[in-house]
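Table S7 (text form). Paired inputs.
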Amino acid sequence: PKLIRIFEALEMFAYRTATKTSVIADDFVAHLLYKQVPAHKIVQIPNWVDVNFIRPLPRANNQFRLAHQLEDKFVVLYSGNIALTQGLETVIEAATHLCHLSDIAIVIVGEEAALERLQQHCQSCGATNVLLLPLQPRQDLPEMLAAADVGLVVQKQNVISFNMPSKIQVLMASGRAIIASVPATGSAARAIEQSGGGSIVTPEKPEALAAAILKMYEHQEHIKILGEHSRESALTN
């Protein structure tokens, strides 16, 4: 508690002495106003994405799919940070509920050190349908995103509501449907709901995540529409 008070004092000192404080979403603004930061000192600069670099690409002859034997798979992709706030164990546990469907592949791309921990969890859960891969070179990012049928955004339940993963804009720009296992009242959920490009499921509930994946797997024509909405949202916003 004493350390927390010290850091809170440092935080307020930073707000008070800064000329401007930049934030990336509405909820951040509301939070700073609640902390009595003057409105004229707050500037909102949303996360951005280069919609010319990240763009919808065809799945046919996709190099990422070919390289990892995913040509005939329904690919559910998570790519990015693997830390305590994500709780990717939920994704692995959800995968175990889908093992009976051999053409569904759960692909997790991230830091190699973190993948070792997830590999152990896969083995203990019996998640044989999860593919763990290291981070890809930046120039290969559009092709990797295009390999996905569905993109995942994952957070734990206790993540603060004003949290906006930058991967949301990236998935939108790639024209992919999104399943977001995130707190329903947060900035991330609101952004996806407003885009019309995906669905929200309760965090840390493997059965709920598996059900959402299965629903999209069974309605693949619908995910094309969701992907179009995602891309349109990226272009508009």
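Next pair, protein 2 of 2.
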Amino acid sequence: MRFEAEVIAAYGRHLRVRDATGGEHDARPFGRRVQAVCGDRVACEHDAAHAEVHVTEVLQRSNVLERATTRGGAEAVVANLSQIVVVIAPAPVPDLFVADRYVAAAASLGIEALIALNKIDLLDSEARSVADAMLVPYRKAGYRCVTCSATRPESLTALRAALAAHVSVMVGQSGVGKSSLIGALVPNLDIATGALDRDAEGRHTTTSACRYDLPGGGAIIDSPGVRDFAPAIDTLEPSSLGFLEVDRLSTQCRFADCQHLREPGCAVRSAAEDGTLDARRYESYRRLRRLFEDLREKRGPGHRSDAARRPVR
């Protein structure tokens, strides 16, 4: 019997799907060509002989968050999103270059991005001022930012409001408290969490992607913590690479195909030099541009992508 369902958890090749009646089933892809991820809508069939459910087809996606592989290819992470929530925290030390790449991916996909500064309960007044200053370039660029703590329910109001009516994925470095936040947002939920190890690098406390419905509407997907992330190059907007302020400034560049590195008459580079554009954000753009070109070169000549180009918001 064929039926359609949504993938609500993905453990490698092991899946958990929910059908239209709300029933949940353990499932597995039928054949190597079926590559389903959390958030996918899929076609399934009951295999009565083996008492299992097979996922036979991934239905059309509205979008998919993909990471770049070392050879310039793409690996799907989660699908059918309307928002990416990037969680940062005072510990482990924030890698804002990773945060930049996630929000660039969101802009290139044409979906919302939100930056959440978690664990504010760990900050004294001086450290809080430093952390708030870290968010200023993002707010100036046009990104929404909230502050929160899983241990302070009153601090979650803005985050809850930002999640309502969205299908969001929560991403970020290992140890920033994504699972603890979801546990605070979804009542009676049992999610395994872990502490930071001795060198202040976050452990991977989430080993799968799981979807949870939120009491106030919307859904959140918890994803494994990362030490690094690079968006798949075919999903990036090729001119600005998803940097909102670069996109706005690029209309003033002398050349339409300006890459904003060494070209004369580059409005982006000029803005970075005079302080109009945050210097760290510009350096982040430069790093992603170099990676973009390196990965494209690794794929070699003649590569053709059928990935759709999406405009930056």
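The first strand starts at residue 2 and ends at 11.
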